[in-house]
Specification:
The structure is a single chain. The protein is α/β, with parallel strands linked by helices. The protein folds into two domains: about 220 residues, Spore Coat Polysaccharide Biosynthesis Protein SpsA, Chain A (Alpha-Beta Complex), CATH 3.90.550.10; about 100 residues, no CATH class. About 45% of the residues lie in helices and about 15% in strands. It has an eight-stranded mixed β-sheet with strand order 3-2-1-4-7-6-8-5, sandwiched between helices. Helix 9 crosses helix 10, helix 9 packs parallel to helix 11 and helix 10 packs across helix 11. The longest helix has 24 residues. The chain starts with a strand and ends in a 9-residue tail after the last helix.
């Protein structure tokens, strides 16, 4: 029986969390014969593929879920999503990150929305899961989620291109094919960032509307280490530079095109890093070490969020310099 909806989950080294994601999908109100799940293990060496297969076997946490597991060398999330989409013939595709715990009606809400708004891309609400370890990182993320939710929930509010996120995103297969899938350059080799915003930009160019549905809820279990987050920020800046080079009009929607509106501390950190990256790397090293300690110990005072914002700007500047070293210049937009 051909499913109506295919859930595509790219994953990398998150075995235990992946099993929780699958267990949540096994409790959906939507009948199981109406959807399938494809997990694409992107360079996993932690047993994710075997754990996923055990989870859907008899007695497993997600027993009976219609699951296909694919494995590939670490090629990045964009490649993994494209492969997962190609694997299914369902008419509707729902992309879900491997740290997103779906509410029981998530799939039903997406199907309902596509019946009401055919030809659109649907994105949903991404609150922080209460199991996320408390720290200034988790609290800062929760505040961002709340601001995003309030902004996008306003009647008639357009969805800014930088809010088109693959944490939870669905579209008809025909739309996905018309957009030619995700641009694999943005996460090549397992780097982070940009492939979802870039797809959203192309969707807007081609007249595909993006709709926010607050009833489509998946909670993010945020367990990222500070070290991993630093790497992600730097990767994301390099991806933004590539995006600005490929689509010059998008720069105004990205941090590299919004320097003048940044808080003073962040603006100075970014501009100084662009001019003197080696000096700034040495100067910021103690701050990064302190922020790492604060995150590990669960410190949550607002001062840490403020300092983290300045550190993010520094790391973003390093990522822009990384892009320049690779021959991708965004300085004209910055």
């Amino acid at each position: 029986m051909t499913a109506e909806l295919a859930v595509v989950i790219p994953t990398h080294q998150r075995r235990d969390l992946l099993v929780r994601v699958l267990a949540a999908l096994a409790t959906q109100t939507l009948a199981r014969e109406r959807f399938t799940v494809t997990v694409v293990c992107d360079g996993c060496s932690d047993g994710s593929a075997d754990a996923a297969r055990r989870a859907v076997a008899a007695g497993g946490e997600a027993a009976g879920l219609r699951l296909r597991v694919m494995e590939q060398a670490n090629a990045g999330a964009a490649t993994a999503r494209n492969r997962g989409a190609e694997d299914s013939d369902a008419g509707l595709l729902l992309f879900l990150d491997d740290d997103m715990i779906a509410q029981p009606d998530l799939l039903a809400v997406h199907l309902e929305q596509h019946r009401q708004r055919p030809g659109t891309i649907i994105i949903g609400h991404l609150p922080v899961h209460p199991d996320s370890p408390p720290s200034y990182l988790t609290l800062g993320l929760a505040r961002w989620v709340d601001r995003r939710h309030q902004l996008l929930s306003q009647p008639g509010a357009p969805v800014p291109v930088d809010e088109v996120l693959t944490g939870q995103m669905s579209m008809a297969r025909e739309i996905f094919q018309r957009l030619e899938g995700f641009d694999t350059r943005f996460t090549a080799g397992g780097t982070f960032g940009g492939e979802d915003v870039e797809l959203g930009w192309r969707a807007r160019d081609r007249g595909v509307a993006v709709v926010y549905q607050p009833r489509a809820v998946s909670q993010q279990v945020y367990r990222k280490t500070f070290t991993a987050l630093c790497r992600n920020i730097r990767d994301a800046a390099a991806a933004d530079s590539l995006m600005a080079a490929v689509h010059p009009g998008v720069a105004a929607h990205l941090p590299l095109g919004q320097m003048d509106s940044m808080p003073l501390g962040q603006r100075l950190a970014l501009r100084t890093t662009l001019k003197q990256p080696r000096m700034c790397a040495a100067l910021f090293s103690p701050l990064l070490a302190l922020l790492n300690l604060a995150a590990a110990r669960g410190w949550s005072a607002r001062i840490w969020e403020h300092l983290h914002g300045i550190a993010r700007a520094h790391l973003y500047g390093l990522g822009m310099r990384d892009a320049e070293a690779a021959g991708i210049s965004s300085r004209r937009t910055a």
